[in-house]
Write a structure and sequence with these properties.
Layout: H1 2-24, E1 30-34, H2 41-57, E2 61-65, H3 72-79, E3 87-92, H4 93-102, H5 110-113, E4 114-130, H6 138-147, E5 153-156, H7 159-172, E6 177-180, H8 184-193, E7 198-202, H9 203-211, E8 215-220, E9 245-253, H10 258-273, H11 275-283, E10 287-291, H12 293-314
Helix pairs in contact: 2-10, 2-11, 4-12, 7-12
Protein backbone atom coordinates (compact mmCIF):
# COMPACT_ATOMS: atom_id res chain seq x y z
CA UNK A 1 0.00 0.00 0.00
CA UNK A 2 2.81 2.40 0.95
CA UNK A 3 4.70 1.54 -2.27
CA UNK A 4 1.58 2.29 -4.30
CA UNK A 5 1.09 5.59 -2.50
CA UNK A 6 4.73 6.58 -3.06
CA UNK A 7 4.41 5.74 -6.75
CA UNK A 8 1.25 7.83 -7.11
CA UNK A 9 2.82 10.77 -5.32
CA UNK A 10 5.92 10.56 -7.52
CA UNK A 11 3.78 10.42 -10.65
CA UNK A 12 1.77 13.41 -9.44
CA UNK A 13 4.99 15.35 -8.80
CA UNK A 14 6.19 14.64 -12.34
CA UNK A 15 2.88 15.82 -13.81
CA UNK A 16 2.93 19.01 -11.71
CA UNK A 17 6.54 19.71 -12.74
CA UNK A 18 5.74 19.14 -16.42
CA UNK A 19 2.72 21.42 -16.17
CA UNK A 20 4.74 24.16 -14.50
CA UNK A 21 7.47 23.85 -17.13
CA UNK A 22 4.90 24.16 -19.90
CA UNK A 23 3.37 27.22 -18.26
CA UNK A 24 6.79 28.88 -18.08
CA UNK A 25 7.69 27.91 -21.66
CA UNK A 26 9.71 29.39 -23.20
CA UNK A 27 12.01 30.39 -20.35
CA UNK A 28 15.14 30.61 -22.52
CA UNK A 29 15.98 31.14 -26.23
CA UNK A 30 14.51 28.69 -28.74
CA UNK A 31 16.47 27.40 -31.74
CA UNK A 32 14.63 27.30 -35.05
CA UNK A 33 16.71 24.96 -37.23
CA UNK A 34 16.26 25.79 -40.92
CA UNK A 35 17.29 23.20 -43.54
CA UNK A 36 18.52 25.76 -46.08
CA UNK A 37 21.09 28.59 -46.21
CA UNK A 38 20.43 32.26 -45.42
CA UNK A 39 18.31 33.94 -48.07
CA UNK A 40 16.32 30.82 -48.99
CA UNK A 41 12.53 31.10 -48.76
CA UNK A 42 12.37 28.90 -45.65
CA UNK A 43 15.05 31.02 -43.99
CA UNK A 44 13.23 34.26 -44.80
CA UNK A 45 9.91 32.91 -43.51
CA UNK A 46 11.56 31.61 -40.33
CA UNK A 47 13.08 35.01 -39.58
CA UNK A 48 9.77 36.81 -40.14
CA UNK A 49 7.82 34.42 -37.90
CA UNK A 50 10.64 34.06 -35.35
CA UNK A 51 10.74 37.83 -34.83
CA UNK A 52 7.04 37.87 -34.05
CA UNK A 53 7.32 34.86 -31.75
CA UNK A 54 10.02 36.71 -29.84
CA UNK A 55 7.71 39.68 -29.39
CA UNK A 56 4.83 37.46 -28.29
CA UNK A 57 6.78 35.30 -25.84
CA UNK A 58 9.59 37.58 -24.69
CA UNK A 59 12.22 35.01 -25.64
CA UNK A 60 14.54 34.94 -28.64
CA UNK A 61 13.77 32.52 -31.47
CA UNK A 62 17.18 32.04 -33.08
CA UNK A 63 17.41 30.85 -36.69
CA UNK A 64 20.11 28.20 -37.10
CA UNK A 65 20.80 27.30 -40.76
CA UNK A 66 21.76 23.64 -41.35
CA UNK A 67 21.67 23.06 -45.12
CA UNK A 68 22.38 19.79 -46.88
CA UNK A 69 20.74 16.61 -48.20
CA UNK A 70 17.58 18.47 -49.25
CA UNK A 71 16.91 19.32 -45.62
CA UNK A 72 17.40 15.89 -44.07
CA UNK A 73 20.52 16.91 -42.12
CA UNK A 74 18.51 19.53 -40.24
CA UNK A 75 15.57 17.18 -39.85
CA UNK A 76 17.72 14.47 -38.28
CA UNK A 77 19.23 16.93 -35.81
CA UNK A 78 15.76 17.84 -34.57
CA UNK A 79 14.67 14.20 -34.42
CA UNK A 80 17.64 13.56 -32.08
CA UNK A 81 17.13 16.72 -30.01
CA UNK A 82 15.67 16.74 -26.48
CA UNK A 83 11.88 16.92 -26.54
CA UNK A 84 11.70 20.10 -24.49
CA UNK A 85 10.56 22.65 -27.09
CA UNK A 86 13.88 24.48 -27.32
CA UNK A 87 15.06 22.85 -30.56
CA UNK A 88 12.52 23.00 -33.39
CA UNK A 89 12.56 22.51 -37.14
CA UNK A 90 11.23 25.35 -39.26
CA UNK A 91 11.01 23.40 -42.47
CA UNK A 92 9.75 23.47 -46.00
CA UNK A 93 7.98 20.45 -47.44
CA UNK A 94 11.38 18.98 -48.37
CA UNK A 95 12.42 17.66 -44.96
CA UNK A 96 8.95 16.73 -43.72
CA UNK A 97 7.22 15.31 -46.79
CA UNK A 98 8.95 15.25 -50.19
CA UNK A 99 12.19 13.57 -49.15
CA UNK A 100 10.30 10.39 -48.32
CA UNK A 101 9.95 9.94 -52.09
CA UNK A 102 13.26 11.49 -53.16
CA UNK A 103 15.77 9.74 -50.91
CA UNK A 104 16.54 6.03 -51.10
CA UNK A 105 17.54 6.03 -47.45
CA UNK A 106 15.57 8.58 -45.46
CA UNK A 107 17.26 8.86 -42.03
CA UNK A 108 13.96 9.39 -40.23
CA UNK A 109 10.22 9.07 -40.79
CA UNK A 110 8.64 12.55 -40.63
CA UNK A 111 5.25 11.07 -39.78
CA UNK A 112 6.59 9.00 -36.87
CA UNK A 113 9.70 10.81 -35.66
CA UNK A 114 8.46 14.42 -35.58
CA UNK A 115 5.71 16.25 -33.71
CA UNK A 116 3.59 18.65 -35.81
CA UNK A 117 3.29 22.08 -34.19
CA UNK A 118 1.91 24.61 -36.70
CA UNK A 119 1.48 25.28 -40.39
CA UNK A 120 2.97 28.63 -41.39
CA UNK A 121 2.90 29.50 -45.09
CA UNK A 122 3.13 28.48 -48.73
CA UNK A 123 4.68 29.88 -51.87
CA UNK A 124 4.96 29.22 -55.61
CA UNK A 125 8.19 28.69 -57.46
CA UNK A 126 9.25 30.54 -60.60
CA UNK A 127 11.18 29.40 -63.67
CA UNK A 128 14.17 31.77 -63.91
CA UNK A 129 16.78 32.27 -66.66
CA UNK A 130 19.54 34.84 -67.12
CA UNK A 131 18.46 38.26 -68.32
CA UNK A 132 20.41 37.73 -71.55
CA UNK A 133 18.87 34.33 -72.27
CA UNK A 134 17.29 33.90 -75.72
CA UNK A 135 14.22 32.52 -73.90
CA UNK A 136 11.75 35.36 -73.32
CA UNK A 137 8.78 33.09 -72.60
CA UNK A 138 7.98 29.54 -71.54
CA UNK A 139 7.41 28.69 -75.21
CA UNK A 140 10.86 30.02 -76.09
CA UNK A 141 12.42 28.06 -73.24
CA UNK A 142 10.80 24.77 -74.27
CA UNK A 143 11.86 25.24 -77.88
CA UNK A 144 15.42 26.01 -76.74
CA UNK A 145 15.54 22.92 -74.53
CA UNK A 146 14.16 20.68 -77.27
CA UNK A 147 16.89 21.84 -79.65
CA UNK A 148 19.53 20.87 -77.09
CA UNK A 149 18.45 17.62 -75.40
CA UNK A 150 20.50 16.88 -72.32
CA UNK A 151 22.37 20.19 -72.56
CA UNK A 152 20.45 22.81 -70.55
CA UNK A 153 21.37 22.53 -66.86
CA UNK A 154 18.83 22.99 -64.08
CA UNK A 155 20.17 24.15 -60.73
CA UNK A 156 18.03 23.03 -57.82
CA UNK A 157 18.34 23.66 -54.11
CA UNK A 158 15.24 22.00 -52.68
CA UNK A 159 12.93 19.08 -53.32
CA UNK A 160 10.35 21.40 -54.83
CA UNK A 161 12.78 23.01 -57.27
CA UNK A 162 14.13 19.59 -58.26
CA UNK A 163 10.69 18.14 -58.99
CA UNK A 164 9.52 21.34 -60.75
CA UNK A 165 12.26 20.93 -63.36
CA UNK A 166 11.72 17.19 -63.74
CA UNK A 167 7.96 17.66 -64.11
CA UNK A 168 8.45 20.32 -66.78
CA UNK A 169 10.71 17.88 -68.65
CA UNK A 170 7.91 15.33 -68.58
CA UNK A 171 5.02 17.55 -69.66
CA UNK A 172 7.01 19.56 -72.22
CA UNK A 173 8.97 16.60 -73.62
CA UNK A 174 12.33 18.20 -72.83
CA UNK A 175 15.49 16.69 -71.38
CA UNK A 176 17.47 18.93 -69.01
CA UNK A 177 20.38 18.15 -66.71
CA UNK A 178 19.76 18.46 -62.93
CA UNK A 179 22.53 20.04 -60.83
CA UNK A 180 22.12 19.94 -57.02
CA UNK A 181 22.87 22.83 -54.64
CA UNK A 182 22.48 23.29 -50.88
CA UNK A 183 19.90 26.01 -51.43
CA UNK A 184 18.07 27.95 -54.12
CA UNK A 185 20.07 31.20 -53.61
CA UNK A 186 23.26 29.26 -54.44
CA UNK A 187 21.65 27.85 -57.58
CA UNK A 188 20.50 31.32 -58.63
CA UNK A 189 24.00 32.71 -58.13
CA UNK A 190 25.27 30.15 -60.62
CA UNK A 191 22.48 30.94 -63.08
CA UNK A 192 23.59 34.57 -62.93
CA UNK A 193 27.21 33.52 -63.30
CA UNK A 194 26.50 31.24 -66.25
CA UNK A 195 27.45 27.96 -64.56
CA UNK A 196 23.93 26.59 -64.98
CA UNK A 197 21.21 27.63 -67.41
CA UNK A 198 18.09 27.94 -65.28
CA UNK A 199 16.53 27.27 -61.90
CA UNK A 200 13.16 27.21 -60.21
CA UNK A 201 13.27 29.84 -57.46
CA UNK A 202 10.96 30.74 -54.62
CA UNK A 203 8.85 33.78 -55.37
CA UNK A 204 10.74 36.11 -53.00
CA UNK A 205 14.12 35.46 -54.59
CA UNK A 206 12.56 35.53 -58.05
CA UNK A 207 11.07 38.98 -57.49
CA UNK A 208 14.34 40.35 -56.12
CA UNK A 209 16.44 39.01 -59.00
CA UNK A 210 13.94 40.04 -61.68
CA UNK A 211 13.71 43.58 -60.29
CA UNK A 212 17.50 43.69 -60.10
CA UNK A 213 17.67 42.93 -63.81
CA UNK A 214 19.96 39.92 -63.44
CA UNK A 215 17.37 37.21 -64.11
CA UNK A 216 14.19 36.88 -66.12
CA UNK A 217 11.03 35.18 -64.83
CA UNK A 218 9.25 32.98 -67.35
CA UNK A 219 6.43 31.24 -65.47
CA UNK A 220 5.12 30.26 -62.02
CA UNK A 221 4.48 26.70 -60.86
CA UNK A 222 1.11 27.11 -59.18
CA UNK A 223 -2.15 26.36 -60.98
CA UNK A 224 -2.97 30.09 -61.23
CA UNK A 225 -0.90 33.23 -61.55
CA UNK A 226 0.38 34.82 -58.37
CA UNK A 227 -1.52 37.96 -57.29
CA UNK A 228 1.86 39.43 -56.35
CA UNK A 229 3.21 39.22 -59.91
CA UNK A 230 0.12 38.79 -62.12
CA UNK A 231 2.06 39.38 -65.35
CA UNK A 232 4.01 36.18 -64.83
CA UNK A 233 2.05 33.35 -66.51
CA UNK A 234 1.42 29.99 -64.90
CA UNK A 235 2.99 26.92 -66.49
CA UNK A 236 -0.49 25.37 -66.25
CA UNK A 237 -1.73 27.85 -68.86
CA UNK A 238 0.41 25.98 -71.38
CA UNK A 239 0.49 22.57 -69.70
CA UNK A 240 -2.81 22.03 -67.85
CA UNK A 241 -2.52 20.13 -64.62
CA UNK A 242 0.98 21.35 -63.80
CA UNK A 243 0.84 22.53 -60.20
CA UNK A 244 3.62 22.47 -57.58
CA UNK A 245 4.09 24.68 -54.54
CA UNK A 246 6.33 24.85 -51.51
CA UNK A 247 5.12 25.24 -47.94
CA UNK A 248 6.52 25.82 -44.44
CA UNK A 249 5.73 24.44 -41.00
CA UNK A 250 7.16 24.11 -37.51
CA UNK A 251 7.70 20.63 -36.08
CA UNK A 252 9.62 19.24 -33.12
CA UNK A 253 10.95 15.94 -31.81
CA UNK A 254 8.63 13.14 -30.76
CA UNK A 255 7.61 13.43 -27.13
CA UNK A 256 7.08 17.19 -26.91
CA UNK A 257 4.75 17.82 -23.95
CA UNK A 258 1.23 18.55 -25.18
CA UNK A 259 1.07 21.76 -23.17
CA UNK A 260 4.25 23.01 -24.88
CA UNK A 261 2.93 22.03 -28.33
CA UNK A 262 -0.39 23.75 -27.66
CA UNK A 263 1.24 26.96 -26.39
CA UNK A 264 3.77 27.12 -29.21
CA UNK A 265 1.10 26.39 -31.81
CA UNK A 266 -1.21 29.08 -30.43
CA UNK A 267 1.57 31.69 -30.44
CA UNK A 268 2.67 30.72 -33.94
CA UNK A 269 -0.86 30.95 -35.31
CA UNK A 270 -1.25 34.33 -33.59
CA UNK A 271 1.95 35.49 -35.31
CA UNK A 272 0.87 34.17 -38.72
CA UNK A 273 -2.48 35.94 -38.39
CA UNK A 274 -0.83 39.23 -37.49
CA UNK A 275 -0.47 42.20 -39.82
CA UNK A 276 3.34 42.18 -39.71
CA UNK A 277 3.68 38.59 -40.96
CA UNK A 278 0.93 38.97 -43.56
CA UNK A 279 2.49 42.12 -45.01
CA UNK A 280 6.03 40.71 -45.04
CA UNK A 281 4.84 37.42 -46.55
CA UNK A 282 3.05 39.37 -49.28
CA UNK A 283 6.25 41.15 -50.29
CA UNK A 284 7.95 37.74 -50.53
CA UNK A 285 5.16 36.24 -52.64
CA UNK A 286 4.12 33.95 -49.79
CA UNK A 287 0.69 33.29 -48.34
CA UNK A 288 -0.15 32.34 -44.73
CA UNK A 289 -1.04 28.67 -44.20
CA UNK A 290 -2.26 28.54 -40.59
CA UNK A 291 -2.71 24.99 -39.27
CA UNK A 292 -2.98 23.64 -35.74
CA UNK A 293 -1.12 20.43 -34.81
CA UNK A 294 -3.93 18.07 -35.84
CA UNK A 295 -4.48 19.86 -39.15
CA UNK A 296 -0.75 19.87 -39.86
CA UNK A 297 -0.46 16.16 -39.14
CA UNK A 298 -3.27 15.39 -41.60
CA UNK A 299 -1.65 17.72 -44.15
CA UNK A 300 1.74 16.05 -43.77
CA UNK A 301 0.15 12.64 -44.35
CA UNK A 302 -1.56 13.88 -47.51
CA UNK A 303 1.58 15.69 -48.70
CA UNK A 304 3.80 12.61 -48.31
CA UNK A 305 1.36 10.82 -50.60
CA UNK A 306 1.20 13.83 -52.94
CA UNK A 307 4.98 14.04 -53.29
CA UNK A 308 5.26 10.33 -53.91
CA UNK A 309 2.81 10.85 -56.77
CA UNK A 310 4.65 13.91 -58.11
CA UNK A 311 8.04 12.21 -57.97
CA UNK A 312 6.66 9.14 -59.74
CA UNK A 313 4.97 11.25 -62.43
CA UNK A 314 8.11 13.34 -62.94
CA UNK A 315 10.15 10.11 -63.16
CA UNK A 316 12.70 11.35 -60.65
CA UNK A 317 14.95 8.55 -59.45
CA UNK A 318 15.49 8.52 -55.67
CA UNK A 319 19.10 9.15 -54.68
Amino acid sequence: MRKTLRFLLAALAVCVAAGAAAQDYPSRPVRLIVPFPPGAATDLAARVVGQQLQQLTGQAFIVDNKPGANGSIAGLEVVRAPADGYTLLFSSNSAIAANVALLKSMPYDPLKDLTPVAGVGENPLVLMVRADSPAHSLKDFVELARRQPGKLSAGYGSSSSQVCAAMLDRVAATDTLPVPYKGIPLALADVIGGTVDFAFADMGNAIAQAKGGKLRALAVTTAQRSPVMPDWPAIAETYPGYSIKGWFAIVGPVGLPKAVVDKLSAETLKAVAGREVKERFATLGMAPMPMNPAQLRDYMVSEVANWKRLVAEAKVQPE
